[in-house]
Amino acid sequence: MDFSNASPESHCISELLDSSDGEEEEILMYGEDLELNPFDGLPYSSRYYKLMKERQELPVWKVRCAFMESLLHHQIVIVSGDAKTGKSSQVPQWCAEHCLAAGCRHGAAVCSQARGQVAVRLALRAADEMDVNIGHEVGYFVPFESCCTTETILRYCTDDMLQREMMSAPLLNSYGVIILDDVHERTVPTDVLLGVLKHVLRARPALRLVILTAPHMSSKLQDFCGSVPLIRVENEHQAEVVYTCSMPKDHFLSALRLLFELHHTKEKGDIVIFLACEQDIDKAYQMIRQEQSNSNPDLGELIPVPLYPTRNDLIPKPNQDKQKCYQKYRRKVLLTTSSGGSLIRIKNITFVIDVGVERRKVYNPRIRADSVTTQPISKAQAEMHKQILSTSPSGKLFCLYPEEFTYKEMKPDFPAKIQESNLTSMVLFLKRMDIAGFRHCEFLSRPAPESLMQALEDLDYLAALDNDGNLSEFGIIMSEFPLDPQLSKSILASCEFECVDEMLTIAAMVTAPNCFLHTPSGTEEIALTCWRKFSHPAGDHFTLINVFNAFREASTNSAGQCCSNEKWCRNYFLSCSALRMAEMIRAELVEIMKRIELPISAPDFGSPENTLSIKKALLSGYFMQIARDVDGSGNYLMLTHRQVAKLHPFSSYYNTRRSPEWVLFHEFSISEDNSIRVVSEISPHLFVELAPQYYFSNLPPSESKDILQEVIDQLSPVSTTKEKQKANSDNKENEKYPQAPTEQRCIIQ
């Protein structure tokens, strides 16, 4: 996501990605009568006419009349187009014109995006092309940042934010046109919106739904939506595709080797590399910078630009002159993954390198964990990589796989994330929509029943459901937070244990991108030494509080000195943009707490009582994520299944003399090196006190469960005997006076 107070590095990246040629704008005169902008009533500027000429050259402009006609007479319109045709930037503007022509009687236009940084960029571009001010006639709202007013007629947002808006306004009455963009990416919120909006359309005949997608999804969407208009947009240019003879042993090194070969040819143009994962982006960035420092200056400068689809933090540039960001570079190298195509917005791309594989996280509901696997990309993704070059007639796509690999190994479409993700948050949203009357949601692709059952079970454990399976009052409050339900539960529990201030900081830090940077080769020990200054003996959650508090103290000491703040982060190998985002997230969480009138306790971090309270709050939400060191050597066995994991290298317990026996962890993924992230020590007694009894009884048999049972027996031997005696007495009474069977209730502690 992009934020207005992002780090200077992000501004440098924005400059690098700016496709303008730097020429001064030409002053255009159009006679004495000035044409007025219908959106703000002011005369158009000369820049508006210049941009209008560029807009009219876009492939999508050819279908403008057909689209406006379809929008006038149909509730749903599907626009199917290749990448770089202009549909994401132009269609929402046409929808805003449609709303304005109707006098905004039915509301404004809103366009959802899968990623926050794309929503912000498109809003800025639309405001520029419409010749209006951002934040007034055109605006955006993304997680933890809003730049809109009640008068905004065109809004860009993320799909999850539009979904959250439906919780308070189920019929979305403030909108006359809703645009769902990048539907082919199959995110969970977009798939859910498609289903829920079908109910809204029936209730609001004047509402319009516009669906923007890639060509391979158009027939599936027509089947889902019924008989609706389909408008196709195609690119004029087709890129040349070069395949390798065989699969390389190492896709990553092969891609970098090809990059340096292309750079040595001195052919002009920028390069895009689609890598397998974001960790490869980090490695490639460092290797390119190192190679550049040793290369022949006559070849020109090679500047890597990392584009992360799932995080906003950027790799710092140590010892770099700030003004260097603004000079002309010879060649830019955009590093991203297969899902980062929408982040690419420069025009002069000549070469694209595609490794053909990606690392995907697939959620396994049986063990409540993600499995990380490397698998081929889909044919649709491969086609979209080729479309990046649609504006370059001489562009070349280098596929690091043979052509037959496309037909034998690649699946046709993007995988639907609703079939690969943890659905607990989605089910919580749908349960909230039950209150609004939407009891049935149609899905474009049905989620696995096992995933839905696991989500319902987890919500029940978290006390978010009542005995009838409906959302409880506790669940309604949980749904107000834009967080994972377990984290929401921990925040609510912190009100009881009077550690709200600290829990909000933890929630912000684990929600923001990882603040610990991937260090360049040779600096690992220096970074670890810096990070140990923040370590807390109670665990990583407490270490994150130390990092956040130290960052805020550094910000206070260097108030008004942005560079000093950046320097502090660089000195400690921390991501300044991630920490700033954590500040924004925390501020938003504080506002939510105030809005729903929940108490915020005074900070007391560091006292033994506060440490115990934080652990209790964490356990209230994360009792399903407990592991035990089974052999004293750091091999942690999950309490809910048979998987074994090690501590992640970023953990404050990593490579220390003492590994805690029982830990609570925030994240666990099954991969080549199973590891648990963000770990804090707990005691069996705390677990027994705070975990629901019926959750404990459902755990599979294990040595860890036996140990916990012994703790239960030790804590309450007398009460257990009394309970047995009372049960025997009740049985005798029931034999004398038979009673009607009562409904079995779930006891949530």
From TrEMBL:
<keyword id="KW-0496">Mitochondrion</keyword>
<keyword id="KW-0547">Nucleotide-binding</keyword>
<dbReference type="InterPro" id="IPR014001">
    <property type="entry name" value="Helicase_ATP-bd"/>
</dbReference>
<protein>
    <recommendedName>
        <fullName>Putative pre-mRNA-splicing factor ATP-dependent RNA helicase DHX32</fullName>
        <ecNumber>3.6.4.13</ecNumber>
    </recommendedName>
</protein>
<dbReference type="GO" id="GO:0005524">
    <property type="term" value="F:ATP binding"/>
</dbReference>
<dbReference type="GO" id="GO:0003723">
    <property type="term" value="F:RNA binding"/>
</dbReference>
<keyword id="KW-0539">Nucleus</keyword>
<dbReference type="Pfam" id="PF04408">
    <property type="entry name" value="WHD_HA2"/>
</dbReference>
<dbReference type="Pfam" id="PF21010">
    <property type="entry name" value="HA2_C"/>
</dbReference>
<dbReference type="GO" id="GO:0005739">
    <property type="term" value="C:mitochondrion"/>
</dbReference>
<dbReference type="GO" id="GO:0016787">
    <property type="term" value="F:hydrolase activity"/>
</dbReference>
<comment type="similarity">
    <text>Belongs to the DEAD box helicase family. DEAH subfamily.</text>
</comment>
<feature type="domain" description="Helicase ATP-binding">
    <location>
        <begin position="68"/>
        <end position="234"/>
    </location>
</feature>
<dbReference type="GO" id="GO:0005681">
    <property type="term" value="C:spliceosomal complex"/>
</dbReference>
<dbReference type="InterPro" id="IPR027417">
    <property type="entry name" value="P-loop_NTPase"/>
</dbReference>
<dbReference type="InterPro" id="IPR007502">
    <property type="entry name" value="Helicase-assoc_dom"/>
</dbReference>
<dbReference type="InterPro" id="IPR011709">
    <property type="entry name" value="DEAD-box_helicase_OB_fold"/>
</dbReference>
<dbReference type="GO" id="GO:0004386">
    <property type="term" value="F:helicase activity"/>
</dbReference>
<keyword id="KW-0067">ATP-binding</keyword>
<dbReference type="GO" id="GO:0003724">
    <property type="term" value="F:RNA helicase activity"/>
</dbReference>
<keyword id="KW-0007">Acetylation</keyword>
<keyword id="KW-0378">Hydrolase</keyword>
<dbReference type="Pfam" id="PF07717">
    <property type="entry name" value="OB_NTP_bind"/>
</dbReference>
<keyword id="KW-0347">Helicase</keyword>
<dbReference type="InterPro" id="IPR048333">
    <property type="entry name" value="HA2_WH"/>
</dbReference>
<feature type="region of interest" description="Disordered">
    <location>
        <begin position="718"/>
        <end position="749"/>
    </location>
</feature>
<feature type="compositionally biased region" description="Basic and acidic residues">
    <location>
        <begin position="721"/>
        <end position="736"/>
    </location>
</feature>
